[in-house]
Amino acid sequence: MRNIKIYLVSLVFTAVLAASAYAQEAGRTALPFLKMDMGARYYGMAGAATAYADDVTGMTFYNPAALGMVESFQLAGTVSEAQLDMKYHYGGLAFPVGFLSIFGNNPLNIAVSGYMFDKGNTDDIYSRSIGDDWSFTFSIGEHIGTTPWEVFGSSADLEHYFGITGKYLRSELAKPVEGNVTGDAFAFDAGYTAVLDKHFGVGVALKNIGTDIKYIEESDPLPATLSAGMFFVPVDVENIYWAVSGDFIAYLKEKENRVRIGTEMYLFDLLAVRGGVKLMEEIREEWSLGFGLKLFGFEIDVGTILNPQLNDDKVYQVSLAYKFPVKKEDSYSAKEDNRNDYKEYKKKQEESAFERAQRNSNPLIYQ
């Protein structure tokens, strides 16, 4: 418990320092793709995923603390179509290491991912590419402890998770006539999540804290973001699962705030229906809708934005993910084997102790 308090105090301290450093005055930022939503599942939920994220996409994009929940190897990919012919591609994988532990509580989990944002083409007669933005990430996360809670007369466990992501960012911009200019930057994310009995959770994430990105002589800061969220599961019965999630997002450099509210319902652990709304937007609120299908370990998700201001532009994301089965039976068998081995060891110790006692009390018999 002491370690958990230390990590939480460190995270809050880091957030305060970052907020002080980045929010001195409002200004523009580079790489706007870092503020977009990623993953069709969360896209359909309006991006309300700071506390609710629990898969590889959510871990590498919304809150690295969710990486501590990984129990088996998983991978995911997303393709998207945005307005003005912009495209977005993502791929990531996460897996438990099993033999390392930074915080000394549970095995460490690792994730890597890559993003590519195609900004589209110019409107001039040459119709050439405006440029691409890239992001490569490496994340670590761990379950850092458990706190027993008494809730309405029954006991429950509050699970604590912490994670960190390192990012390498590269951006290309088209020159007025021909060619491109490039810029590079490094950044990190840090996050914390607490989940109570898998039915209620809170989370906080500090993202895109790093160096300015520079093109020739001009440089701009990254869109440093502080987000806080929570989720609640009002229904979790045999064939129906329903969750509601909400986020408050602060863009520190721009001094802008956003609110995200999303919901997800699973029927028979097979079909998912999602919806969400983005509030406090620059122009008006945005509504989102999504669907998902689980089949043979695969998860196929589709999400879109329902915004008449986009006119005829197609704005959607499609994701495909696979989670390898968790070998709970093997784990249980291994634990049983360990228990049996320990019982056998204790039995032999007791027999040896009894024999030594007999020898000491009756030395003539054993001569």
In words, what does this structure look like?
There is one protein chain. With 367 residues, the chain is an alpha+beta fold. It has helices at residues 2-22, 40-43, 56-61, 328-361, and strands spanning 74-81, 87-96, 109-118, 132-151, 154-174, 180-196, 200-210, 213-215, 218-220, 225-236, 240-251, 256-267, 271-279, 286-295, 298-306, 316-323. The strands form two sheets. It has a 14-stranded antiparallel beta barrel with strand order 1-2-3-4-5-6-7-10-11-12-13-14-15-16. A two-stranded antiparallel sheet has the order 8-9. The longest helix has 34 residues, at 328-361. The termini are far apart. The relative contact order is 0.16.
Strand content: over 45%
Radius of gyration using CA atoms only: 25 Å
Task: Please tally the β strands and state the result.
Answer: 16
Helical content, roughly?
10-25%
Uncertain stretches: 329-339
Overall spatial form = globular
Which class do the helix and strand fractions yield?
A: alpha+beta
Q: What assembly state would you assign to the polypeptide chains in this entry?
A: single chain
Average pLDDT reading:
82
**Helix/strand order:** HHHEEEEEEEEEEEEEEEEH
Number of helices: 4
Largest sheet: 14 strands, antiparallel, barrel
Strand order of the largest sheet: 1-2-3-4-5-6-7-10-11-12-13-14-15-16
Give the termini distance in whole angstroms.
55 Å
